[in-house]
Write a structure and sequence with these properties.
The complex is a heterodimer of chains A (about 250) and B (about 70). Chain A folds into 2 domains: about 140 residues, Jelly Rolls (Sandwich); about 90 residues, Jelly Rolls. By secondary structure, chain A is mostly beta strands. In chain A, a hairpin with a 2-residue loop joins strand 18 and strand 19. The mean pLDDT of chain B is about 90. Chain B has a domain of about 50 residues: Rubrerythrin, domain 2 (Single Sheet), CATH 2.20.28. Chain B starts with 7 loop residues before the first strand and ends in a 15-residue tail after the last strand. Classes of the chains: A mainly beta (about 250), B mainly beta (about 70).
C-alpha cells in the first residue's frame, strides 16, 4: 500500500533565533544576527508529530543572517549531520580537527559518533542558506568522522547525482540511506529507481517546479512516499529547478 | 521482576545515548535504571531536551563500545 504526504513550503515548522537574549549561548554572531530555520520534521521547539523519514530525523532549511551568525560550538553524539550549502559561505569547525569553509554546492557529513562538537558560522555579511539533514547511525558510538564533497551544478546539470550513499564520488555513511540531487535548466522526465522495494523517498524542491509521480511541487515544497514501488517518476519544469532527494530504508 | 530486555534511548536534540544497562552514573542513574524510572522532569544532560523527546533505538554498538566507566 502506498502512503505519502505532501508538505507545502509554508506548512513547515518555523523558528527564528536571535544571537542575543535567551539563545545567546547557542546562537553566534553580532547582536543583529538571526538564524531562521524551516523544519520538515520535528526538531527542537518545532514538534508537530512527524518525527522524520526512515533513518532521517531532521531536515532543516536554515538561513544564517548577519556577520558571525550561526551556532556556537556544541556537543553531539551518534547522529550523522549533513550540511548542503545552497547560498553564501559556511565555516564549519569540529573536534575531529577540521576547520572547513564551504560554498554553494559544497556539502559535508559529520558523524558525531562517540562524541564530537561542532560550530557552524557565517563569517560574511551576505546570508548563508544551508540544508541540514540528520541521519541515525547504523552503529552507536562510532569514532567521530568528517568528510566533504561537492555538487557541481554546472558540469552536472540535468543529471541525477548521488551525493551520499554507495556510489562513485559520493560520501559513505554506513547507513542505508542515499541523498541525490538534480539541477535542471529544462523540462526533464526521468525515473528514480529505489534500491529496495521497502525503501521510501523524500523529495524536496530547493528551487523551481517539479512533479513527483503526479504530485506537483513548487519552491521549498516536499513530498514523501512509501510503498510506491521501486520506480518514482520525476519531472522538472522548464525553468531552473533543483531537487534534493533522500531515499531511506524504513 | 521486570524481565523486559534493557533498552537504549537517544536524544533527538543532539544524539546523547541513555542505555538502561549502563545507566548514567554521573547523572545519578545507576546501571539497570529503566527509562520509565528516570524522572519525568529529567532532561538531556548535553542539550536540555526533555525526556519525552527521546526515541527508543534498536541500533547495535560499534565494536568496542560502550566503554563502561567504573562506578564511584
Amino acid at each position: 500500500m502506498t502512503t505519502s504526504f505532501v508538505l507545502a513550503a509554508n506548512e513547515r515548522g518555523y523558528n527564528r533565533f536571535l544571537s542575543t537574549g535567551d539563545a545567546s549561548s547557542y546562537i553566534a554572531g553580532h547582536p543583529d544576527a538571526t538564524v531562521t530555520r524551516y523544519s520538515s520534521f520535528d526538531f527542537g521547539p518545532y514538534q508537530n508529530g512527524r518525527r522524520g523519514f526512515g533513518r532521517m530525523r531532521v531536515f532543516g532549511d536554515e538561513l544564517f543572517s548577519g556577520l558571525g551568525c550561526g551556532y556556537n560550538i556544541h556537543r553531539h553524539h551518534n547522529f550523522i549531520i549533513c550540511a548542503f550549502v545552497l547560498k553564501g559561505q559556511l565555516t564549519h569547525i569540529n573536534t575531529v580537527g577540521n576547520i572547513d569553509q564551504l560554498s554553494a554546492g559544497d556539502y559535508y557529513a559529520f558523524s558525531a559518533g562517540a562524541g564530537g562538537k561542532h560550530s557552524e558560522l557565517n563569517l560574511r555579511s551576505e546570508d548563508a542558506n544551508i540544508i541540514y539533514i540528520w541521519i541515525l547511525p547504523d552503529q552507536l558510538l562510532l569514532p567521530p568522522s568528517y568528510a566533504r564533497g561537492r555538487f557541481d551544478a554546472v558540469n552536472e546539470r540535468n543529471r541525477l547525482v548521488t551525493l551520499i550513499g554507495n556510489a562513485d564520488g559520493a560520501l559513505r555513511t554506513g547507513q542505508d540511506i542515499k541523498v541525490s540531487r538534480i539541477a535542471s535548466n529544462r523540462a526533464l522526465s526521468l525515473e528514480y529507481v529505489l534500491g529496495a522495494e521497502d525503501h521510501g523517498v523524500y523529495v524536496f524542491a530547493i528551487e523551481g517546479q517539479a512533479w513527483v509521480n503526479d504530485t506537483s511541487l513548487s519552491r521549498r515544497d516536499s513530498t514523501g512516499i512509501w510503498g510506491g514501488g521501486k520506480r518514482i517518476k520525476l519531472r522538472t519544469g522548464v525553468e531552473d529547478t533543483d531537487l534534493l532527494i533522500v531515499e531511506s530504508a524504513p | 521482576m521486570n524481565t523486559e530486555p534493557l533498552k537504549r534511548w537517544m536524544c533527538l536534540g543532539c544524539g546523547f545515548l541513555y542505555d538502561e544497562t549502563v545507566g548514567s552514573a554521573e547523572h545519578g542513574l545507576a546501571p539497570g535504571t529503566r527509562w520509565a524510572d528516570v524522572p519525568e522532569e529529567w532532561v538531556c544532560p548535553d542539550c536540555g531536551t526533555p525526556k519525552h523527546l527521546f526515541e527508543m533505538v534498536e541500533i547495535p554498538y560499534a565494536p568496542g563500545q560502550p566503554v563502561l566507566r567504573p562506578m564511584v
